[in-house]
Amino acid sequence: MANKKRVPATFVAFDVVYEDGSRSSNRRVAGSILGGLDGDLAATAAIEEQDREIARQSGRQRPAIKSIVRSTVR
Fold it and tell me: pTM value?
């Protein structure tokens, strides 16, 4: 059986600051949804969806997002 070629998954890390002042660093968003006319704005929707899933599983609501910036990964 031939080996299947795998497409490398690329992710972009973002730092998120919430309205209450809390911070979440290195939140990963698939690179495939970024770009185009919206640029990094698509990351906001993806991170909000992640937050909804986290809230659903934990039973604790996350505060509203104040700002999102790309992480400086070293």
Answer: 0.77
